[in-house]
Design goal:
The chain is mostly helical and 224 residues long. It contains 8 helices and no strands. It starts with 14 loop residues before the first helix and ends with a helix.
Length: 224
């Protein structure tokens, strides 16, 4: 899992972001403890990464063919997506618990994170296209673009030695919204979580851009 965490220069964050950082850190510690037993086995973080992306892709495939059995394919596809995303969370926990993490493993994890999520959103977009729901289709495209930019803005900020982890549009929140949408899809409510997802990701992108600008201004003031 590569969307959460912190690094770089200290900077002021909002109360909501502090709450998020606290529960994220607590969740990491719990997961690391839960993976200590698994760390003694031959299971590697890269194996979990591959399992996770495979399940997410299988889930996306089912959602893409939902017309054959709407409720079954939406729910089964959503279940596979959830399990695959959990495996993605656990690969990082296993890497920390077993000290098995590698630079390439982190790169692979980040790449497959984007692949699994984009595949599911592409499948959802296909559903909207078949339903001639053009507004929801555009929102799905916006959600895909926004989710990529959420990850990119953080990665770019950290490459500059800054923090870029603010906002509530990180991978965990995105997975939750997509999963809720798939659960509600048989009743024709899939578009509403997608609208929220698109808005949340772009708001997070804006938050991160402003946060980076603030850090750069603070550094410039300190240097002057």
């Amino acid at each position: 899992m590569t969307d959460d965490g912190s690094g770089g220069e200290p900077a002021r964050v909002s109360q909501l972001d502090r709450v998020k950082q606290e529960y994220t850190q607590s969740a990491r510690e719990i997961l690391a403890r839960s993976m200590r037993g698994v760390a003694k086995t031959k299971l590697t973080p890269d194996m979990l990464t591959l399992v996770g992306v495979t399940l997410c892709l299988a889930g996306a495939l089912l959602v893409g063919f939902e017309a054959r059995n709407e409720r079954l394919f939406f729910w089964l596809g959503g279940a596979l997506f959830i399990v695959g995303s959990v495996a993605d969370i656990l690969d990082g926990a296993l890497a920390r618990a077993a000290s098995k993490g590698t630079v390439f493993g982190a790169f692979l994890d980040a790449t497959f994170d984007r692949l699994g999520e984009a595949a599911m959103l592409a499948a959802i977009g296909l559903v909207f296209m078949r339903d001639s729901n053009e507004v929801a289709l555009v929102a799905t495209f916006a959600a895909v673009t926004g989710s990529f930019l959420v990850s990119y803005t953080r990665a770019k900020a950290e490459s500059l030695g800054l923090r870029g982890d603010v906002g509530f549009g990180s991978r965990v929140e995105r997975v939750v919204l997509i999963s809720v949408g798939l659960g509600l899809a048989p009743w024709g409510l899939l578009q509403w979580p997608i609208y929220l997802l698109a808005a949340m990701t772009w708001l997070t992108v804006l938050q991160r851009m402003l946060f980076v600008r603030r850090q750069l201004r603070e550094l410039a003031e300190q240097a002057s």
